[in-house]
């Protein structure tokens, strides 16, 4: 009898043997049949199969439409690809001071609007606004530099990168000025009625216009390039704190 019971238990699955130790034979049979042998296996419970052929065709069309839309969407260019295509380069024909004077006038209006009444008083409020401002179109002048030959260089900023200012001078020359070890001076006239110098004007008219601009009251501030080595987009979201600088 013992040998027959041992052979029958060996032929049974291990689940039935374990259940028989805790339940009676009828309960063991019921649990084995309902909970183990006939238990449904859901391969993808979150996505049940379509109820009919029409729903299946609709789902297939939607999947194809999404894949086609994703394939047609162009990928954004990387920084290396933009540099290779020359998107950041200014052609030699466009390196003229007169072409960027309207941009400079727009920047003057932009900076006056940002500063508001603090353009007359200055202070920490004006400094915090100037640090987060965009300097594309500003006319900067190098007043101090580790390289003596750069002192006195003046031009309109056409590119404000992380480590350099790219400017166009009045002699229609493009200069790349590093921010490190350089102090820039920027002048903002308080009056809004400044006019641009046209190419067809005589030398007398140009001199008179330069004299009137020199007599106008201005807000003059200096930018220390050592503390300004950020891209213009990064400066807009960065909070600067006043602290002692060893360079000053």
From TrEMBL:
<dbReference type="InterPro" id="IPR016848">
    <property type="entry name" value="RNase_P/MRP_Rpp29-subunit"/>
</dbReference>
<dbReference type="GO" id="GO:0005634">
    <property type="term" value="C:nucleus"/>
</dbReference>
<dbReference type="GO" id="GO:0033204">
    <property type="term" value="F:ribonuclease P RNA binding"/>
</dbReference>
<keyword id="KW-0539">Nucleus</keyword>
<dbReference type="Pfam" id="PF01868">
    <property type="entry name" value="RNase_P-MRP_p29"/>
</dbReference>
<dbReference type="InterPro" id="IPR023534">
    <property type="entry name" value="Rof/RNase_P-like"/>
</dbReference>
<comment type="similarity">
    <text>Belongs to the eukaryotic/archaeal RNase P protein component 1 family.</text>
</comment>
<feature type="compositionally biased region" description="Polar residues">
    <location>
        <begin position="1"/>
        <end position="12"/>
    </location>
</feature>
<dbReference type="GO" id="GO:0006364">
    <property type="term" value="P:rRNA processing"/>
</dbReference>
<dbReference type="InterPro" id="IPR036980">
    <property type="entry name" value="RNase_P/MRP_Rpp29_sf"/>
</dbReference>
<dbReference type="InterPro" id="IPR002730">
    <property type="entry name" value="Rpp29/RNP1"/>
</dbReference>
<dbReference type="GO" id="GO:0000172">
    <property type="term" value="C:ribonuclease MRP complex"/>
</dbReference>
<feature type="compositionally biased region" description="Basic residues">
    <location>
        <begin position="56"/>
        <end position="73"/>
    </location>
</feature>
<keyword id="KW-0819">tRNA processing</keyword>
<feature type="compositionally biased region" description="Basic and acidic residues">
    <location>
        <begin position="21"/>
        <end position="37"/>
    </location>
</feature>
<dbReference type="GO" id="GO:0001682">
    <property type="term" value="P:tRNA 5'-leader removal"/>
</dbReference>
<feature type="region of interest" description="Disordered">
    <location>
        <begin position="1"/>
        <end position="75"/>
    </location>
</feature>
<protein>
    <recommendedName>
        <fullName>Ribonuclease P protein subunit</fullName>
    </recommendedName>
</protein>
<dbReference type="GO" id="GO:0030677">
    <property type="term" value="C:ribonuclease P complex"/>
</dbReference>
């Amino acid at each position: 009898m013992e040998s027959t019971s041992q052979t029958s238990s060996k032929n049974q699955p291990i689940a039935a043997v374990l259940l028989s130790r805790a339940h009676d034979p009828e309960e063991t049979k019921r649990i084995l049949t309902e909970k183990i042998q006939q238990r449904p296996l859901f391969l993808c419970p979150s996505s049940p199969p379509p109820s009919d052929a029409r729903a299946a065709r609709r789902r297939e069309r939607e999947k194809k439409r999404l894949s086609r839309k994703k394939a047609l969407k162009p990928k954004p260019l990387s920084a290396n690809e933009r540099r290779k295509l020359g998107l950041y380069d200014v052609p030699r024909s466009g390196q003229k001071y007169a072409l960027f004077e309207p941009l400079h006038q727009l920047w003057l209006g932009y900076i006056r609007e940002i500063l508001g009444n603090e353009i007359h008083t200055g202070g920490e409020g004006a400094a915090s606004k100037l640090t987060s401002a965009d300097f594309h179109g500003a006319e900067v002048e190098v007043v101090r530099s580790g390289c003596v030959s750069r002192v006195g260089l003046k031009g309109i900023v056409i590119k404000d990168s992380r480590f350099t200012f790219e400017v166009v001078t009045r002699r229609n020359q493009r200069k790349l000025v590093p921010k490190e070890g350089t102090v820039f001076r920027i002048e903002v006239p308080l009056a809004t009625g400044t006019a641009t110098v046209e190419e067809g004007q005589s030398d007398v008219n140009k001199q008179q216009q330069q004299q009137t601009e020199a007599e106008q009251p201005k807000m003059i501030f200096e930018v220390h390039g050592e503390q300004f080595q950020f891209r213009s987009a990064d400066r807009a979201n960065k909070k600067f704190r006043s602290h002692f600088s060893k360079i000053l």
